[in-house]
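agent> Task received from the user: take the single chain below, predict its 3D structure, and emit structure tokens. No templates, no multimer pairing.
agent> Plan: (1) validate residues, (2) run structure prediction, (3) serialize to tokens, (4) report one or two observations.
agent> Step 1 OK, no nonstandard residues flagged.
tool_call: predict_structure(input=
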Amino acid sequence: MTYLALGANTGPRADTLRRAVALLETHLGTAVALSAFYDTAPVGFSSPHRFLNAAVAFDTDIDPHSLLSLTRRIETQLGRTTKSCGTHYTDRPIDIDILLYGPTVVDTDSLCLPHPRMTQRRFVLEPLAEIAPDALHPTTGLTISRLLQRLNRATIVRLLPTDDDARLYLRDVTPPDADSPTPPSADATMSTADATKAVNALLPQLSERAALLEPNALGSLVARTATRLYLALDETGQPAAMATLCLATSPTGTKAWVEDVVTDSAARKRGYAARLLQCLRAEAQSAGAKSLNLTSRPQREAANRLYRRMGFRRRETNVYTLPIGPTTTTDA
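)
tool_result: status=success, residues=332
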């Protein structure tokens, strides 16, 4: 089975992808499978134009190099005049890449199979996993669904202050796992403005009443030793989820509370929240806390299922809230 990736980010994107499939079918026969169209952000370059991506499967005996020539002719027919050079990417009306040609491995100046960057590209793996989750990648020996699972591992970083108010330090606290016992360090810095933008993009998804932060407020927050703010970075280094760990010492010991757990709507069902909670549990343990606590509204059904799966037990206690404001009065 041969699998191709399709992409377009200029012009009538959906129509172009459908035309590309129709033109391929005139030479290769009816497509065995075609994925849904996935709306994705550009990767490797900046552009205001988002992509539509898809994967398509054909059962063909045309040789790989002839197939490559065919895809180039169709790209030209659909308006593409230049191909990306190396890692220099640009907007394009159509892109057709050969991902897999059965178990065939090719390494020539004009063609590499399997596609050399497919294992790191979500916009390739997600549509391909839809139509061929059990297809084997011939050089890794892993299925497409497994490659996508590996890509879903987030890097967890804690935001910390630096000597420069304009930047924050990202301390990599990613817990090791079976696939990556010693994860590569992601220690780096991020501008306070960018970090604030990332947090503010997530806050409204947590609560409609959440107030957006100013950069100086975020800087003051992460400077507090008892409040720890964590971000989950996806494979492109973009923040995809957030959580806060609050530590308090009392006569009965150190208490650890998880607050503000939220995953970006475009990054849900990838396990990022679970990875964050695993990380916060380890961080709380290292701080001497005996338990990790959180509260969650009953309406957050998916989140509550996750908490139960991870071993959180619902406590039979009452939570009391006292609003405090300048006009608050009480009657004894």
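agent> Step 4: summary for the user.
The longest strand covers residues 239-250.
agent> Done.
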